């Protein structure tokens, strides 16, 4: 069985963690399935090869941007653009080079995380709809794994998402706001369900010595998206808030660990700027920057922290699912929903709050007794989510195994 993992990525470490999680679960239950992704221009071949992923072919990344825009709008153009690649590529070459013809895909599993809503260009949703409808016409399943959806106020985005849902077999929102956004588009539909983020129960990563095992540290995770998508709320206050939080962390005797949770150059630059501003303000507990190519190692490092203050969604998931309290500085409803699901809605910090509010939260998490109280809540909530997550996987495998038998 050939399964396409759609929306997968390596640059964003949260996206890669979703990819690694779904690969582990699929291979555990369906070891003979071939898993494939559509290569992008940012990810080296070696990263896909490490995970033994095949490649979807023909790949529209071969084409120039103008042609790709045309393919979104025209089935005939898609056929004509892809035909030469199919005619000139012998079938044995597909196996030799790890290629799977798009028309030989038996199921699509979407792990986009957050790509469908008014915050993104409608073409992104339309591309997913085209892929989904292509499989749906052949009677193949399309599964949207737990992710954030909406809002869908823009007509083109809403129309494209409606087409995507029409072709879907299962649709999983990862929290109530996303569930309501989808239901507002498609109504009360038996295909629509809710389940927690799949990375809450991600596999254990390799044992890596980070050099900080014996230290007491708290984590800061910057996110460049706070400077564009979150700018309307945060203005120029975001970086100064992180600096203030880092200084307060050090005052409690913990080293501020600045974690880069994305391969984007913007996150790296923001982390370096945070370090440059924070380092002169701290006398003893000097800050340091930590990153790693493997997101499972990043999760392991976060799990060793006293607490986290940050904005990368899956860094917060890594913390909370490991029983580590985290203060979320966010720009979308997914942050509030995550904190609420884990029973700690008070650990949200918004742009409308002030710096003193954040420092009070840092003080609370630095208190041993309060920190332990929150850890107990997080562990209890995580175990309560496990049943939901396993029920979701049961439904996913029921659909995939049925398709494999047909």
Automatic annotation (TrEMBL):
One Gene Ontology MF term: transferase activity
UniProt KW Transferase keyword: yes
Domain Polysaccharide pyruvyl transferase: 12-332
UniProt keywords, alphabetically: Transferase
InterPro entries with a match to the protein in the record: Polysacch_pyruvyl_Trfase (IPR007345)
Taxonomy, superkingdom: Bacteria
PANTHER family named in the record: COLANIC ACID BIOSYNTHESIS PROTEIN WCAK (PTHR36836)
Name of this chain's protein: Polysaccharide pyruvyl transferase
